[in-house]
Specification:
The protein is mostly helical. The chain has 23 helices and six strands. It comes from Phodopus roborovskii.
């Protein structure tokens, strides 16, 4: 199908009144963003203001941007310049600085990782970078055209992206075994870091509604959108129906103000009560297991009438442009705590921590990347402006920790010293739906989900949430992969 034919496909729902021609699959190319600016979720003026007042962002782009320009991801991240610096420095190191892997291979691995979540934004970006760094154009025809050595990454790519707890030392041994297609351990660690980075970055792209890049040389300025059984306009539009219904009364505003005050009260109470009651280790374990099991029933789309859970049980349509870079496209996230069956043992964070185990291993095999990743993890975890919506002088530590640990909980990672009862007190249902979608099924994220939680909070605060989710996810993937490598070495 040529571009003209793609352009003639439209969709129909109650809000937009356009319809696809019968008999044509629902794969749509949109020639320009449906909303202006770098994000479909955030008003353009908020991002532009952040960029114009902060010269630091321009300096960082000049120093560390691989594309040499202020792309849409960087513009949205510039709402948090301190974090942006850590992010750009680590990404620049992975893609540009001395390391075990050739430059074109790094970008191809990024493409493979982004394809697991159908993230055409990142695929288009790295197709261009792949070619600029001397990549062989034929490889872009699909995996059958790349060396077997790269194809061998498919298994660990899909496991890391969707079910990292299944990675074992046998997967590592298979990749590093002797033979012409083997990987050295430093090469494999570099590849694993890239895969985890781009899986997590896909979560940020979808969670923040990043618009496609436009301009010369950017994959013709077109974006692929994979559509399941819901309307494409719900992916990126202004959700005029929902906004109109809220505008019809003050109920939504009053209700969200009440939610904010209640959340702040719960945070204050948790901080005051900490240390007052002695919680046994058995009780802490029980609370983790309860939270893990409850996450089973957090279903993407469940709180939105237009996205019933059944919509997501069908196989998602994957465009040919994406599927060429992956194998086993039907393989996706499956809850760590599956219904009605005993499953894998919980990953006890104290047995294999990033600080004591993962950091030293990754730094030994891929020099200096450990320091850069550690700085990035610490930066996002500790980042605070001591504000919540319009309130100042607020300690948000408990809230940030709950967000980070809830992601790890969904990936089967437990912290013995954390009371998982705090998760239920601090994270409302709509926020849990959003977190699970962005972290586990990012390609299903909609503006309606983004708008549904913390309605009194600023967009900058919601971007901070997305940064926390992204880094928590990346760290979870790395912990499983590095633990498997450690077991292989021992």
């Amino acid at each position: 199908m040529n571009i003209a034919e793609h352009m003639s496909l439209w969709c129909e729902c109650a809000s937009c009144g356009h319809m696809p021609r019968s008999g044509i699959d629902k794969r749509i190319r949109v020639s320009q963003p449906l909303t202006r600016g770098p994000s479909a979720f955030i008003p353009e003026k908020e991002v532009v203001q952040a960029n114009t007042v902060d010269e630091r962002t321009n300096f960082l782009v000049e120093e560390y941007s691989t594309s040499g320009r202020l792309d849409n991801i960087t513009q949205v991240m510039s709402l948090h310049t301190q974090y942006l610096e850590s992010f750009l420095r680590s990404q620049f190191y992975m893609l540009r600085m001395d390391g075990p892997l050739p430059l074109p291979d790094r970008h191809y691995i990024a493409i493979m990782a982004a394809a697991r979540h159908q993230c055409s934004y990142l695929i288009n970006m790295h197709v261009d970078e792949f070619l600029k760094t001397g990549g062989i154009a034929e490889w872009l025809n699909g995996l059958e055209y790349v060396p077997q050595r790269l194809r061998n990454l498919n298994e660990i790519n899909k496991l890391l992206a969707h079910r990292p707890w299944l990675i074992t030392k046998e997967h590592i041994q298979k990749l590093v075994r002797t033979g012409e297609n083997n990987w050295s351990l430093p090469e494999l660690v570099h590849a694993v870091v890239l895969l985890a980075h781009y899986h997590a970055l896909a979560s940020f792209v979808f969670g923040s509604g990043i618009n496609p890049e436009t301009g010369p040389g950017l994959s013709n300025g077109f974006r692929l959108i994979s559509v399941n059984s819901f309307c494409v306009c719900d992916l990126t539009n202004d959700n005029s129906i929902e906004n109109a219904s809220l505008a019809g009364s003050n109920f939504g505003i009053v209700d969200s103000l009440g939610e904010l005050e209640a959340l702040m009260e719960r945070m204050k109470r948790l901080q005051e009560d900490r240390g007052d009651e002695e919680t046994t280790r058995e009780e802490m374990t029980t609370r983790f297991e309860k939270e893990k099991k409850e996450s089973l029933f957090v279903v993407p789309g469940e709180t939105f009438h237009s996205f019933p859970p059944s919509d997501f049980e069908d196989d998602t349509i994957i465009t040919a442009d994406v599927s060429r870079y992956i194998e086993d496209p039907g393989f996706g996230y499956e809850d760590f705590a599956r219904r009605g069956e005993e499953h894998l043992p919980t990953f006890r964070a104290q047995d294999y921590t990033w600080e004591n185990h993962g950091f030293s291993l990754v730094n030994r095999l891929y020099s200096d990347i450990g320091h850069l990743l550690d700085e990035k993890f610490r930066m996002v975890y500790n980042l605070t402006y001591n504000t919540m919506a319009t309130h100042e002088d607020v300690d948000t530590t408990t809230l940030r920790r709950a967000l980070f640990n809830y992601v790890h909980c969904m990936f089967g990672i437990r912290y013995d010293d954390y009371d998982y009862g705090e998760v239920n007190q601090l994270l409302e249902r709509s926020l849990k739906v959003y977190i699970k979608t962005v972290t586990c099924y990012p390609e299903r994220t909609t503006k309606r989900m983004y708008d549904s939680y913390w309605r009194q909070f600023t967009h900058s605060e919601k971007v901070h949430v997305n940064l926390l989710l992204m880094e928590a996810r990346m760290q979870a993937e790395l912990l499983y992969a590095l633990r498997a490598i450690t077991r292989h070495l021992t």
